[in-house]
Protein: Thioesterase
Amino acid sequence: MQHSIQVRVPFADIDLSGRIHFTAMLRYMDIAEHDLMRALGLPRVTTFPELEFPRVHASCDYHRAISYNDELTITSRIMRVGRSSWTASFTSFYSHELAELGPDASKPATSGQLIIVAINKQSGRATPLPDELRAVLVAQLESTEQNNITK
Structure:
């Protein structure tokens, strides 16, 4: 399973070069990850109130210029499930083919990852993923891997 969201880049997310500010894409990735978790039936707002889920690593590679008003499709998927953390990966594409890009229109604009850790609110320390969360994440990971094998 791969999940997607649509984003239109607002003017406020553009820097002085006229391109997207690097922090904006990290925010879009975070939004996409929350949306993925909702799609998996585990909304952060109401699920696991005894835990916190900080991002302990964020990375993003910018392959193409992204500008004001560009429409992006950001896909997210679970890439790895550990004892107390998981890694989500993201790829963004232009939602509409841009004529000037020609054959390059299908290449990603960005790719990145977030590593999210389960933290016990009381102790402030990493804790094993709850069984329900682990089962959903592993099922999603296996679904993605199976799709990659059959392609």
About this structure: The mean pLDDT is 90. The domain at 3-150 is CATH 3.10.129.10 (Thiol Ester Dehydrase; Chain A).
